[in-house]
């Protein structure tokens, strides 16, 4: 018997279906509530900061809100797999309006790219793998280069790389043409939102509590998350070049929300909603052969030690 497994298919054959069948159930109330919760936290944080504004506390506000915007992006990722709602219309349009468009992303476009990522993981047909071909994604990486990248993210310039990576521009297969009505609805969304804030002389609210957190901390957190997911995973076949990173409550709040760091589990079972991924991790760890086949880091600091060279 081999000491490790090479593919997600082999792992799924070993794990009894009855152990993961329940984990695949989509809870509509959890999906919709997660969107409501993130926006409630964003609004509450904004109101508190405006009421008791302090430049000393503002960096904490930026970090907290930046993580909330990342959480909305990860809920959009859930909707790509139809895990927010079993109703396709609700699943897609809740995600577009409340998750992806505020993040300057089209879920419709991202879905094509992300499903290709799952289908051809870590191969030349994987648009994520192709988009990481430049030197800024070659890990292990020297510390000075990594610090330079983080400074770029903090400056706000990292948003351009993020939008490029999140698009489907690197797809080898040409994506379907987006209909005109979709473009019109999306453009109208931005005109209405920005117009309302400007009409009521609240444009500074958008700058302080949306643009600055989103252009800075969201980009840093998203970069660290993406580094941890697939970088510097040695000795694995392309199908299992994925990392699960354990973490505590503070990391979940400020850096890696929605259990996205349980990334082995997500790629082996992409139909499991994020709120069940930690349970899926426990199920996979019950089998020693499966446990030995997966790359798991005990913290993001351990990921740093694996990916960054002194």
Keywords:
mainly alpha, two-stranded parallel sheet, 310 residues, 63% helix, two-stranded parallel ribbon, 4 strands
Task: Characterize the structure shown.
This protein has 310 residues and is mainly alpha-helical. The protein has one domain (8-309). The protein has helices at 8-14, 17-21, 28-51, 58-80, 88-100, 107-119, 127-131, 143-155, 158-166, 180-199, 203-215, 217-230, 249-254, 263-268, 277-285, 288-293, 300-307; strands at 141-142, 243-245, 295-297, 308-309. The strands form two sheets. A two-stranded parallel sheet has the order 1-4. A two-stranded parallel ribbon has the order 2-3. α3 (28-51) runs antiparallel to α4 (58-80), α4 crosses α11 and α4 (58-80) packs across α12 (217-230). The longest helix has 24 residues, at 28-51.
Structural domains: how many:
1
Low-confidence stretches: none
Distance between the termini: 39 Å
- Judged by helices, strands and strand pairing, the structural class is mainly alpha
Query: What is the string of helix and strand elements?
Result: HHHHHHHEHHHHHEHHHHEHE
Helical stretch count?
Answer: 17
Overall 3D geometry? globular
**Portion of residues within helices:** 55-70%
Radius of gyration: 20 Å
Number of E-state strands: 4
Average pLDDT level:
93
Residue share in β-strands: under 5%
In what order do the strands lie side by side in the largest sheet? Answer: 1-4
The largest pleated sheet is described as: 2 strands, parallel
Compact description:
This protein has 310 residues and is mainly alpha-helical.
């Amino acid at each position: 018997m081999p000491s490790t497994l090479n593919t997600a298919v082999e792992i799924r054959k070993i794990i009894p279906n009855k152990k993961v069948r329940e984990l695949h159930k989509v809870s509509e109330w959890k999906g919709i509530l997660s969107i409501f919760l993130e926006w409630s936290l964003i609004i509450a944080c904004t109101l508190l900061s405006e009421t008791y504004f302090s430049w000393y506390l503002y960096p904490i506000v930026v970090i907290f809100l930046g993580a909330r915007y990342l959480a909305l992006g990860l809920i959009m990722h859930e909707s790509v797999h139809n895990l927010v709602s079993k109703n396709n219309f609700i699943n897609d349009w809740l995600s577009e309006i409340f998750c992806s468009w505020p993040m300057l992303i089209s879920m419709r476009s991202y879905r094509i790219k992300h499903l290709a990522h799952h289908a051809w993981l870590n191969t030349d047909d994987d648009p994520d793998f192709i988009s990481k071909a430049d030197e800024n994604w070659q890990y292990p990486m020297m510390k000075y280069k990594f610090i330079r990248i983080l400074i770029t993210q903090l400056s706000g310039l990292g948003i351009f790389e993020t939008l490029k990576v999140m698009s489907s521009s690197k797809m080898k297969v040409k994506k379907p043409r987006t209909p005109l009505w979709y473009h019109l609805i999306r453009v109208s969304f931005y005109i209405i939102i920005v117009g309302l804030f400007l009409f009521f002389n609240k444009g500074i609210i958008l700058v302080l509590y949306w643009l600055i957190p989103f252009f800075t901390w969201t980009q840093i957190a998203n970069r660290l998350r993406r580094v941890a997911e697939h970088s510097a995973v040695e000795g694995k076949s392309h199908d299992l070049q994925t990392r699960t990173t354990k973490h505590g409550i503070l990391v979940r709040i400020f850096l890696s929300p929605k259990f996205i760091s349980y990334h082995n589990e997500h790629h082996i079972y992409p139909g499991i909603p994020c709120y069940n991924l930690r349970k899926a991790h426990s199920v996979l760890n019950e089998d020693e052969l499966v446990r030995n086949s997966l790359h798991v880091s005990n913290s993001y600091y351990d990921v740093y030690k694996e990916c960054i060279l002194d």
